[in-house]
Design brief:
Blueprint lengths: L2 E6 L7 E6 L2 H13 L1 H13 L16
Antiparallel strand pairs: 1-2
């Protein structure tokens, strides 16, 4: 599975990150595996405790190139 993560933009709102996956199946696998990963669970617990995540939204796009 290949996951690309981009933190955007350099100006303006700074609470946006883009993730890309090879397929919807890869994304679903990532979601399932992240729920079993202790480091990921710790990160979610930290975010809940500190309220450092402003919002969590998902959007699905088709690739423009390739």
């Amino acid at each position: 599975m290949v996951i690309h993560v981009r933190k955007v933009p350099a100006e303006g709102a700074n609470n946006v990150a883009l993730f890309s996956f090879a397929s919807l199946a890869s994304y679903e696998t990532y979601r399932q595996e992240s729920q079993a990963d202790q480091a990921c669970r710790d990160a979610f617990a930290y975010a809940a405790k500190t309220e450092c995540v402003v919002s969590y939204e998902r959007s699905f796009f088709r690739p423009v190139f390739g």
